[in-house]
Design goal:
15 helices, alpha/beta, Hypothetical protein af1432, Rossmann fold
């Protein structure tokens, strides 16, 4: 079995010989008389070297040159300074580089051996713990990704049930998610007062897929009616936001941020900034920002999409209807984001109309 290696860096041959005598039975000893030689040996043997004994004062390249080289190369090895009288300033500088210990000349062999063995063992245990932590982190990340993907599948499957019942193409949910992400991009950039994070954006985009889940509870005679709804039928249709929120409540497991976004969007995406929406007649910033975003997005996509009761409007006509207030009132901030998103929305509509998105 190949011996582990140690590197002794000292311009005084006697010191190298003394240390070599202490360790040569257990280790293969590499020697360097200056920093340049040490750096060459480090580069060639980095995976085998267990510890470096390093003098500070040497010709050609001193000990700090070796420490700097190790820092630049990101070599993670325990370093033990060997010195006859380092200053407090040089010791502090060495510790800043991450040296493990300082041993003063002349050497006491048994003490040097024991301290070195302790440092090597500690370094190995630390590395093993770090590797174990990295492996656990990797597995946890894989589990989270798998859970996220499964969750995404279930959300999309559940939301698609509504579209299937409504005899729609299945693109509405995907468009809503795309449009929601675009609106949030501009909201984060120009209105930081909402304190949205990247995690919030991902949660809101996912939650937007469930905005119409309550339509599961609407009778087919109303949901699939090809003509205009009567006032009584419209009142029944409006209950889908409440039914959706109640459905989410029944399946709630944790009151986390994602659930709250789902609930806010499901219940409040038909509220309007002037209080003229439903079901709770919320007004202004009483309406959660997640619901405000999905509210406008839902209206826009309903206008540019063909439905059982209408043909699709053009992008330009839909935008003008929203700007003219024909679809209810939206906040000035939301409208500003909508204006910034015109081109993005148009591009998505063109793409989804011309090809099948996966």
């Amino acid at each position: 079995m190949e011996k582990e290696k140690i590197l002794i860096v000292d311009d005084e041959k006697m010191n190298r010989t003394l240390l070599k005598h202490i360790f040569e039975e257990q280790y293969e000893v590499l020697e360097a008389a200056n920093g340049e030689e040490a750096n060459v040996l480090l580069d060639a043997n980095i995976d085998q070297i267990q510890v470096v004994f390093l003098d500070l004062l040497m010709p050609v390249l001193d000990g700090f040159g070796v420490l700097e080289h190790m820092s630049e190369k990101k070599y993670r090895l325990p370093v033990i300074l060997i010195t006859g009288g380092a200053t407090a300033e040089s010791e502090e500088k060495a510790y800043d580089y991450g040296v493990s210990d300082i041993i003063y000349k002349p050497f006491a062999p048994r003490v040097v051996m024991r301290r070195t063995r302790n440092i090597i063992d500690l370094y190995k245990r630390t590395n093993e713990m770090e590797r174990e932590l990295e492996e656990r982190t990797r597995k946890l990340k894989e589990s989270e990704e798998k859970l996220h993907n499964n969750s995404e599948f279930l959300i999309n499957a559940l939301s698609s049930v509504v579209e299937f019942r409504s005899l729609e193409s299945g693109e509405h949910i995907r468009r809503v998610k795309f449009f929601t992400r675009i609106m949030l991009k501009y909201l984060m950039k120009y209105f930081p007062e909402y304190n949205l994070t990247d995690e919030d954006v991902e949660a809101i985009v996912r939650a937007s897929a469930l905005h119409d889940i309550g339509k599961i509870a609407i009778p087919d005679a109303i949901l699939l009616k090809p003509g205009k709804l009567t006032p009584a039928e419209y009142e029944v249709m409006k209950t889908h936001s409440v039914y959706g929120a109640e459905l989410l409540e029944k399946f709630k497991q944790d009151d986390n941020q994602f659930y709250r976004y789902c609930y806010e969007i499901c219940r409040h995406h038909h509220e309007r900034y002037d209080g003229g929406g439903y079901p709770d007649k919320l007004k202004g910033e009483e309406i959660p920002i997640s619901a405000q975003i999905v509210s406008l997005v839902d209206v826009y996509d309903a206008l540019v999409s063909k439905r059982i009761y209408k043909e699709a409007y053009t992008h330009e006509f839909a935008v003008q209807m929203i700007k003219d207030g024909e679809c209810g009132a939206f906040s000035p901030k939301i409208m500003e984001c909508f204006e910034l998103a015109y081109a993005d929305f148009f591009a998505i509509v063109e793409v989804l109309d011309s090809c099948s998105f996966v």
